[in-house]
Amino acid sequence: MACTTLNTGMSSVLAWLAVILCLTVYCVGSSPPNFILLFADDLGFGDLGCFGHPTSVTQHLDKLAAGGLRFTDFYVTSPGCSPSRASLLTGRYQTRSGIFPGVLSPGSRGGLPLNETTIAEVLKPLGYNTAMMGKWHLGVGLNGTYLPTRQGFDSYLGIPYSHDQGPCHNLTCFPPDVKCFGFCDRGVVTVPLIHNENIVQQPVDFLNLETAYSKFASKFIRNSVQKGQPFFLYYPSHHTHYPQFAGPRAAGKSRRGPFGDALMELDLTVGEILHTLKETGVLNNTLIFFTADNGPELLRMSRGGNAGPMKCGKATTYEGGIREPAIAYWHGRISPGVTHELASSLDILPTFAMLAGAPPPKVTLDGVDMSKILFQQGPSKRESMFFYPLDPSEKIGVYALRMGKYKAHYYTRGSIKSSTTPDQDCHETAPQKQHDPPLLFDLEADPSENYSLSPQEHPEVAIVLKHMQHLRDDFQASMVFGESQGGRGTDPALEPCCNPSCTPKPDCCTC
Ligand code: MG
């Protein structure tokens, strides 16, 4: 009798557990997914442990890779910060939004035009809570015209541009035993920390910056979950851009020196975000995507990142400048594995939109939905990628084109950002050179772009190049260049200053 009662009691408990479980599964399955977009800075194809670096400490990113999908053929649209970020957030080549030439400055008049639709703006109408922390680099403008809070983000904590775009004295000389290395920008304001649209610190305390980001992320996720809102967190990190810094948890802790310490600090934040997702019970309903804006700044030598087997690095359209490590992780939804499908930062907006059930923006999108790759349901919809230099022009057009396994270089040029390695093609001394016929590489057989295919030995070359030429012609005919935002110039009065009426600037902008 006692046994029967116990069994009955157990059965009803189990039944209730099942009901709760079903409800939970139903709720999880029916609520829109959360998105966390992690974007490292000047990080090369070979910099993560899970992409083969022997001494990087990236245990949390490595776990995401082991439990998620690792991309081998993932591209950004530009080998430089601002244009790559514009494409990531809009799903459009930077030539359309006008984020060229080069990168934006603290006093730039221009920024990502407000009529561009960002991922945050795609998700907002569905009730998403949206936040960003870290490096914006898509303009500040008069009274914060171009800050993230004007582009769909409910809240923001971060430095609105690169952290070397300020005097060096407050950047790299800590801890005291870490020496400054090279130069940062002079004659501009010290680097500010902005919360929403207000400067809360100037200069930034780099020693505690990553901890502040980690707390911001945790609070944002917890608040969203408490309110029952789906969320989108965009974290473009300052790591691992030069000059590298790290707080006490990572400084001096990696085998790899300052670059390794910076990367380790970023990885710790990834670990803390994962911990918060688990604690709040939303890990199973959150897609985490990691990649980086452009390849390594080889100019900085051992502090400049590593492109692995890829040729050259930052500011070039060789593979080292534009092919990036990428990881998609969604516990219980994305199966662990590796994909060799062609994919791009352009594809993130359409993919997030599709997964959230949001209509894509009514503009010319260059990105395609890559959810079939994520869930291993089929091949990539992406057939090609076009690459412009940092100073694109309609007259020259695209420098390079990837189609399937082939890549054609119509133009090549080295850069000071990729000087210092033995390969002279990467250097500043390698001027713009037109290739007619184009240099053609089989990137599956030769990812390092060492051996261009000769028509004599490879009869398919002529047919491939003809097909690529059609693609290039069609693409260029459809490309409408936006107004150059870099071309609008700079105004020192626009540099963020915590004490706007002080003199003499920029030195007095300290609070
Ligand atoms: Mg960068």
How would you describe what is shown here?
The chain has two domains: 352 residues, Alkaline Phosphatase, subunit A; 97 residues, 2-Layer Sandwich (Arylsulfatase, C-terminal domain), CATH 3.30.1120. 27% of the residues lie in helices and 16% in strands. It contains eleven helices and 15 strands. Helix 6 packs parallel to helix 7. The N terminus is likely disordered. Bound molecules: magnesium ion. The site of magnesium ion (MG) has 6 residues, from loops.
Give the helix/strand class: alpha/beta
**Strand-residue proportion:** 15-25%
Task: Give the CA-CA distance, first to last residue.
Answer: 76 Å
- Enumerate how many helices there are, as a single number: 11
Counting structural domains, the number is: 2
Bound molecules: magnesium ion
CATH architecture of the largest domain: 3-Layer(aba) Sandwich
Taking the sheet with the most strands, its summary is: 11 strands, mixed
The overall pLDDT, averaged over residues, is 92
Percent of residues in helices comes to: 25-40%
The number of E-state strands comes to 15
- What fold name goes in the CATH topology slot of the largest domain? Alkaline Phosphatase, subunit A
Which homologous superfamily in CATH is the superfamily of the largest domain? Alkaline Phosphatase, subunit A
In the predicted model, the low-confidence regions spanning at least 5 consecutive residues are 1-29
Could you name the CATH class of the largest domain?
Alpha Beta
Radius of gyration: 23 Å
Output the helix-strand order: HEHEHHHEEEEHEHEHEEEHHEEEEH
